[in-house]
Design a protein that fits this description.
The structure is a homodimer.
Chain A: H1 11-37, H2 42-53, H3 58-61, H4 63-69, H5 77-99, H6 103-134, H7 136-139, H8 143-147, H9 149-161, H10 165-174, H11 181-207, H12 220-252, H13 257-277, H14 281-293, H15 300-324, H16 334-358, H17 363-374, H18 377-389, H19 395-420, H20 428-431, E1 437-438, H21 446-461, H22 465-478, E2 482-483, E3 487-488, E4 491-494, E5 501-511, E6 521-530, H23 534-547, H24 551-559, H25 563-576
Parallel strand pairs in A: 1-5, 3-6, 4-6
Antiparallel strand pairs in A: 2-3, 5-6
Helix pairs in contact in A: 1-2, 1-5, 1-15, 2-15, 5-14, 5-15, 6-9, 6-11, 6-16, 9-11, 10-11, 11-12, 11-17, 12-13, 12-14, 13-14, 16-17, 16-19, 17-19, 18-19, 21-22, 24-25
C-alpha cells in the first residue's frame, strides 16, 4: 500500500486552531465596528482586540487560558497552523495594498506628486534615521538592530516617513474627496511613498546580517540585485503579461472567480520568491498587487470582492495577532513614544506642506495634503511587526510605532476635515436653475455622457464645447469618477471661466462609470471649475455627493418628469434633512 | 522583558508554504476552468490537479520534488501550516454548502420533497449498507472499518445515498431551471438529503471506537446526545438569534464586511465545538451555514461574496489536496469501483424516480428529478475523505468513491437536459401579442410588480385577479424568482386555465427581486400555468431566460417605446440568433 499519511493535526489541535481563529476574528471585527461607530478607522479596534487577547490583558488575567488558546511553544501544531494562516493573511493584505497603487495615476500627476512625496519622505526620513543612528538604545534597537546600526537607522527613517495608502484612501472616501483633484494628489503621493518605502525596507532586510551574527548566506549584493531585478521585471514584463492575461481571463473564465484565482496565484508565487530571496513574502505580494492593480482591465467589482474578503476576514486576524505576542503595558517606553510621535507628526506634515506649497497649491490645500499624508495606519504597523520579527527593533519601539501609527490615523481625517470645512453651508437647490438639469440623458457610455453634458455646459458658460469635453475626458481617463449609489462626478478645470458651473444629468438607463458597487450612474454631475479657484471643486463635489447620499431623495428625483420637479424635490430635501 | 516569541515558521518553511499554495491553487483553478470550458463541473479539474501534483503523477516523476513541496513527515512545519489551511478551507466550504440549505423551502415543498428524499435515501442506503456489511473486504474497509463493521456499513450507505447540493444547484442554474418548480423540488430534496446524511455521518464518527481499539474516551451515548443537542439548539435558538442579529449587523455594521465577519465567526465557533465533540469541525460549519443561510435577511450579494471567495480560493485548494495523499493508479480497485458505481446510479435514480412518481409527478419530471438527484459531486468526496482520514475506509474505496462522485456529477446535467428537451423550439415572438407586454411598469417592489402584471393576466385569461396575485405572491415568498442580468420570473400554477399565459413587463427604474448579481429586474415575466400542464412552465421559463441572455437584445428592448416596437426587436433577434 501507498503513503497512508498520518494526520499532522490532532482533533485537539484543530479545536484550538478553530477557536483561536474565531476568537481573534470575532473580537477584531467587533471592536473594529465599534471604532467605526466612533468614526475611527477599523484597524484601531482590530489592534485593540489583540491587546485584550494577548499578554497585556488576557495574559494578566489568566496566563493558562492564553497559553491554551494561543500557545507560545514553537513546536505546538496549533500555533504553527495559526502562524501559517497569519503569514498568508499578511501576504493577501499587502496584495490588496498593492492593488490600490495605480502607476499611471502617479505618472500623470507629475510634478506635484513628486514634490509632495519627495519632501514628505525626505524630511521625516532624515530626522528619524539621524536620531536612530545617534541614540539607538533610547529609541529601542533590537539585538540585531544594535549589531547593525545602519540598517536600523534606515528602517526607523522609513517607518517614520511612510503613508498608509489603504487608510488614507478610506479617509478620503469618507470625506467624499477620493475622486477630487486634491484626493488624487494625496493618493498618488501616498502610492509613490509606499513604493519607495517598501523597496527601501527590502534593502534593509537584505543588508541585515544573519541572526547568529555571521555573514548572511547569500551575499548582500546578490540579494539586492535580485530584488531590483525582480522589481524591474514585475513592473515591466510582469505588468505587461498581467494586462494581456486579464482581459482573456475576465472574458473566458468564470467571473469574478477566474480573476480572483489568477490574482491570488500571482501574489503567492511572488511571495514565495521574495521570501526565498530573504526579503519577506509580503514584499512580493505587494509588487504583484502593483503589477496587476494598475490594469484598467481589472474591473472595480473584482477588486471589491478581493478587497472585501481580505479586509474583513484576513486583515482583522493579522492586526489582532500583533497584540498576541507583546505586552503593551510593560513594553511602553514613554521617551521612545514621544520621539516617534514628534518625528512622525512634525517631520511628515512639515515635509508634505513644503512640497505642496512649492508645487503651487493654495495654503488650504497644502495643509489638507500635509494632514492627509501624515496618516500611517496599517502600513507602519506591518513594517514595525516585520522589523520586530527580524530582531531589528525591540518591544518598546514596536509599541511606539504601533501607537504612532494609530495616533496619526486618528488625527488625519478630522484634521483634513477641519481645514477644508467650508464657511457657509451651500445648498444644491440654491445654485441650480432648470437649465442646469438634463432630465433625460441618451448616453450609453461615460464618453457619450460627458459629451452630452458638455453641450449644455458650453451654452451656459460660453466656452468652447470641444475644449470642455476634451479636458473632462482626459480627467476621466486618469481615474474614473463613478461613486457608489449610482452617482458620477466628471469634472474639468478650465481657464477663462468666471465662476464654477454644475450641470446635473439624469439617465434612466444608467451609464457604467465603473463605480465600486458596480451600479451604473443614474445621476451624473459635470463640474466646471475655474483654474484659479481649486477649492470650489471640493465643496461642490462634496455637496453633490452628500445631497444624494439620501436614498429617499434619489428615488424621488429619479421619478421627477421635468427639471422643475427635479429642483422641487431638491428644495424639499434641503429644507428637511440636508 | 516579556515573551519574545521565536518564529515558529522559518523563511524556508514560509517559502514552501507559499509555493505549495500557489501551485495547488493555480493548477486547480486552471484545470477547473478547463473543465468548465468542456461544460463539466469545476470540481472535476480541481481533483485532477491534485492527482497530477500528488503521488500518482508528480510522485512518479520526481518523488524528491513532491516531498519538498508537499512534505509528508508529520512534524514538518510547512506541512502543518498547509494542513491547517486545508482544514480551514474545508470548514468554510461546508459553511457555504450549509448556507444554501433553506429549511423553510424544504418545509413548504412538503409531500413531494419528503417522498423523493426518503426513497432516494432509503433505497441506495439499504443497498450500500447491506453490501458493506456482507463483503467489507471486497468494498475496502479500512483498519478501523474492519474493527467496526456496523459504522462502516452505515457510512457506505450514507456515502452512496447523498446528493451534492452545490453541484446540482449549479447544474440547474446552467439549465435555467433553478427557479422552476421542478428545480425547487430537486433542491429541497437534496437539502433534506444533505442534512440527514451529515447527521448520520456525525453519528457514525461518534460510534467509531478509538484508534487503539480501546473504548472511546467519551461514551458514544454522550457524543450522540451532545450532537443532537447542538443540532437542536442551532436550528431553533441559534437560528432565531442569527435571524435577529443579521438585520442589525446589515444595517449598522459595514456592508458586506460586517456580515462576512459574523458568518465566519459563527462557523468557526461551531466548527471548534463539533471538533471538540469528536465529530469533525466541518459538521459544525455546515450546521452554522444552515442556521444562518435560512434567513431571508441575508442578502444575495453577501452570500455571493462569501460564495465567490470560498469557491475560488479555498475550495480548489481543498479538492486538489485530496489527490496529494493518494495514488489513484495503484489504489484503483476495479471491483469496488463497479459496485459503488452500480449502487449509486441504480439505487439512487431508482429510489428518486419511485418517490417522484408516488408524489404524482409526470414521467418526464420524475426522470428529470431522478437524474438530478443522482449527482454526488463535492459532498460525496468530502465524506469519503473524512472516512479515509478516520481509518474507516481504505485507499481503494476512497478512490472508488471519488470516481463515483465525479461520474455521477458528469452524468447528471446532460441526462436531465436530454429528458427535458422540448421537441419543437418555441420562439418568444410567436407567442406574444401587444397585449402581453406592459411597456412602462410603475411598481417599486416585487409585490407591486406582481400585482401590476396580474391585472393584465386577469384580463387576458378571464380568471380572478386576486386569485392569480395570491398564488404568485405565495410562490414568490417561498423563493425569490430574480435571475441575473435584470430578469425576474414570478409564476403561478392555476386551476381552470385553458393554456399557459405569459405577460412581460418592462420597468425602467428596476425592481429588486434579490437576484444573485444584485441587479434590479428590468424585464419581469409573469407566467400563468395550468395545474395539469406542469411541463409548459419549464419550457416557457427557459425560453424567456434564454432569449434575454443576449445583452444586445436586452438593451434594444429596453429602448423600445411601444409594445409593438418591443415585439419587433424580439422578432429580429429570434430571426438571427435564438
Amino acid at each position: 500500500m501507498i503513503i497512508l499519511a498520518a494526520a499532522s493535526l490532532e482533533p485537539t489541535d484543530i479545536t484550538r486552531l478553530m477557536l483561536a481563529l474565531a476568537v481573534l476574528l470575532g473580537a477584531a471585527r467587533l471592536l473594529g465596528e465599534v471604532s467605526r461607530q466612533f468614526k475611527q478607522p477599523a484597524v484601531l479596534g482590530e489592534i485593540l482586540a489583540g491587546v485584550l487577547l494577548g499578554p497585556t490583558v488576557l495574559g494578566y488575567v489568566s496566563p493558562d487560558l492564553l497559553e491554551w488558546l494561543f500557545p507560545i511553544s514553537v513546536g505546538e501544531p496549533s500555533r504553527i497552523a495559526l502562524d501559517g494562516f497569519i503569514v498568508i493573511a499578511a501576504t493577501l493584505l499587502l496584495l490588496v495594498v498593492g492593488l490600490e497603487v495605480d502607476l499611471s495615476t502617479v505618472r500623470r500627476q507629475g510634478k506635484a506628486t513628486a514634490l509632495v512625496s519627495l519632501l514628505g519622505v525626505a524630511i521625516p526620513f532624515i530626522l528619524g534615521a539621524s536620531l536612530a543612528f545617534g541614540i539607538p538604545e533610547v529609541l529601542g534597537a533590537g539585538e540585531r538592530g544594535l549589531a547593525a546600526p545602519l540598517p536600523f537607522a534606515v528602517f526607523v527613517g522609513i517607518a517614520l516617513s511612510i503613508t498608509a495608502l489603504p487608510v488614507i484612501a478610506k479617509v478620503l472616501m469618507d470625506l467624499n474627496l477620493a475622486k477630487s483633484d486634491l484626493g488624487m494628489l494625496i493618493i498618488s503621493s501616498a502610492m509613490l511613498n509606499d513604493l519607495v518605502g517598501w523597496i527601501g525596507f527590502a534593502v534593509v532586510l537584505a543588508l541585515l546580517p544573519a541572526e547568529d551574527g555571521a555573514a548572511p548566506t547569500t551575499s548582500v549584493f546578490t540579494t539586492i540585485t535580485m530584488t531590483l531585478v525582480f522589481l524591474g521585471v514585475m513592473i515591466t514584463l510582469g505588468r505587461w503579461l498581467c494586462h494581456k492575461a486579464l482581459p482573456y481571463i475576465q472574458s473566458r473564465w468564470s467571473w469574478p472567480g477566474g480573476v480572483l484565482g489568477f490574482v491570488s496565484v500571482v501574489a503567492l508565487t511572488c511571495a514565495a520568491f521574495t521570501e526565498y530571496l530573504g526579503i519577506h513574502s509580503i514584499f512580493g505580494a505587494f509588487i504583484a498587487g502593483v503589477a496587476i492593480g494598475d490594469s484598467p482591465r481589472l474591473r472595480e467589482r473584482t477588486r471589491e470582492t478581493i478587497h472585501q474578503f481580505v479586509t474583513n476576514f484576513f486583515a482583522p486576524v493579522f492586526f489582532a495577532s500583533i497584540g498576541l505576542r507583546i505586552n503593551f503595558v510593560s513594553s511602553f517606553e514613554p521617551l521612545a513614544v514621544v520621539i516617534v510621535l514628534a518625528v512622525a507628526f512634525v517631520g511628515k506634515a512639515g515635509g508634505c506642506y513644503l512640497g505642496a506649497s512649492l508645487a503651487g497649491m493654495s495654503k488650504r490645500e497644502s495643509w489638507a495634503t500635509a494632514f492627509g499624508m501624515t496618516c500611517q495606519g496599517a502600513v507602519g504597523i506591518i513594517l514595525g511587526q516585520l522589523a520586530y520579527s527580524a530582531g531589528l527593533i525591540n518591544d518598546g519601539l514596536l509599541v511606539a510605532v504601533v501607537i504612532m501609527a494609530l495616533a496619526t490615523s486618528l488625527f488625519s481625517g478630522p484634521a483634513m476635515q477641519a481645514v477644508l470645512k467650508s464657511k457657509t453651508r451651500l445648498r444644491l437647490a440654491d445654485i441650480l436653475s432648470d437649465k442646469h438639469i438634463l432630465i433625460q440623458m441618451q448616453a450609453n457610455t461615460p464618453t457619450e455622457a460627458i459629451t452630452e453634458l458638455t453641450q449644455r455646459g458650453a451654452e451656459l458658460t460660453g466656452l468652447n464645447a470641444e475644449t470642455i469635453a476634451q479636458t473632462a475626458l482626459e480627467r476621466e481617463e486618469a481615474m474614473n469618477t463613478g461613486l457608489p449609489l449610482g452617482l458620477a462626478v466628471p469634472h474639468a478645470r478650465l481657464d477663462g471661466l468666471a465662476k464654477p458651473c454644475m450641470i446635473i444629468g439624469r439617465s434612466m438607463i444608467g451609464v457604467d462609470f465603473d463605480a465600486t458597487d458596480g451600479e451604473p450612474a443614474h445621476l451624473i454631475c459635470l463640474l466646471l471649475i475655474p483654474t484659479d479657484d481649486p477649492d470650489s471643486q471640493l465643496e461642490l463635489l462634496a455637496l453633490f455627493a452628500r445631497t444624494f447620499q439620501d436614498d429617499d431623495l434619489r428615488q424621488r428625483v429619479l421619478a421627477a418628469t421635468t427639471p422643475t420637479e427635479f429642483r422641487a424635490e431638491l428644495n424639499l430635501a434641503v429644507g428637511t434633512s440636508a
